[in-house]
Amino acid sequence: MAGATVKIDRDMCNSCKTCVDACFIDVIRWDDKEEKPIAAYPEDCVWCLACEEACPVQCIEVIPIVPWRMPAPY
Amino acid sequence: MASLEDLGKVVSTDVLIVGGGIGGLPAAIKVKETSPELDVLLVDKATIGWSGAAPKGGGVFWVIAPEDDLDTFVEVHVKGIGLYLEDQELLYEFARDTYGAVEQLAGWGVNVPKHDGKLATYHILDTRWSHASADMDMLLSLRARARKLGAKMLNKIQIVDLIKEGDRVAGAVGFNIVDNSFYIFQAKAVILASGGCHYKMERMWFAGGGEGIAAAYRAGAEMRNAEFGNLHIFVLKDTGSEPRVPKAQDYLINSTGEDISERYNLRGEPFDVPSLKPLVSMDKEVAEGRGPIYLDMTKVKPPSGGLGEPGRIDWYRPKFDSWRKRSEKLQKYMPPASEKSELSLRFGGALSPVKVDHDMRTNLPGLWAIGDTSYMGSSLAGAIPAPPGGVRGSGLMNAVLGAMKAGPSVARSTAEVVPPKVSYDMIKQLKEEIFAPMQRKNGIMSDDTLHALQDIVNPLRYSVRRSKDRLEEAITKLEKIQQELPRLIAKDGHGLFKCHEVKSLTICAEMTFRAALARTESRGWHYREDYPERDDKNWLKWITLKQDGGRMVLSTEPIPIERYKVKPSL
User: Which residue range is the domain that position B496 belongs to?
Assistant: First the structure.
């Protein structure tokens, strides 16, 4: 498992929801009340950076937790 | 009288496509192009347009370009990669269609590189076949095309099981991972395009939870070539990331500084014919007390050739470039590179065993499987984990080619089908089983089960340097995990989704270990220390397996080698 700190600047966010679409493992959810994204399951983030890359106003930063769990091969 | 609507949301369609990636979207387009009157519904556990492997890799497609020789490609593949376990007729057919498939993607709106009006192709290092590219947002173009043709789409729904009416597949059930609502999809035909199984160890392949494979297995679909689901890749131990060194097997040293690339004759292997030999050598060195293994960075030489010929590929991929820059940003969080980096190996699995014919039909009426669900099961790849099947870019290409076959086949077969009836009692039972982890108050978490599973599939002694004793030991450990699965708990839809992934992964692991135990020879990526030689006399056979009476039952199927062009000397 990987995991990351997913920082979302809600003031900068334009509520386009693209980051929710871009996240393929359900780390980012949509907060209906605030109409903003939330990093709901950051412990499952695998640093694909699709959310950072897709955000049109660059308000997301993914900071990986290194190293991630790697089972021994021997 | 109780109705299905009491259990969940009932959705009826002619064609249900599970997975909206680089297989599912082209399949939807092909069905609609062939029979516009058919209703097509795509369902995905993530968001269609962003899901699956295509938006995360390099956007590279394997292509046999006009200057490549088709016969040479097949011969190199059969003799060096798939070791006579390919369905050579399918390999010819698919290889022949690769170039046209990329042109078709361009016709559907995907931006692909052209040079002087022709598809621009290139070679990676010394590959004896070509590649073409598309940018990483290719699925958004395909989604727009599918929508324009009338395909419907639902996101954030994990399909768990197939519905059957007699022997026929009549739809699927699943749940919305955000609001936990239960869905019942009734369909005349189902195309599985939900990806392969990667045991959640390779970051970019995390979507491959094997759910489609497990659902097909539980429904009675046959599997094939599961013993080759053992892809391992080199990673740097400190970071878990791949070393940026082509042909890393050329620069291996052990703890005493001995050149083990020399000792095990690992140098000089062609880049385009991947071998299991470096992995077996590393495990042997460590087992004999000379580990760990390092990558000697002082000896790394730049490879000849390169990633294409810049003059020829006069084309810019902004999404890929942006993704690459961000990936480089991750480097600042990683330990600095040293002259002697300890190497590790990470299991990627790459299991895609659903058995299909040349139209991508499974043995179950009403069920087709494409892309990473059936790459190995189609026997396109032979004795090697697929994707990548030893051919970079063949994962994406296989998905598109499978869609080109399955789409018209489904359209032709579905017109005459009477809408199936679905049993209330069966759906009620499936619903109870699916949501059971959310009903339990005490039990085990899916992450703990996943880690226990990873600790069985990752060690080379079980997955690479195999023997009867070690495989039986792995199966015994796996059975203990399987006995604990009824204790999985989840507190919400996200947790439930992970429970079903890990259940699927344990089924996939069992397929690989049992098939590996049955193949008493060594071939390609299947190495048995107790049967170290290739045995063409007894093992020009495919191992198939399916569920029968609640058990995994294996059998063999002779390869029709007499029909094929490339034959081994017996």
Answer: 433-563
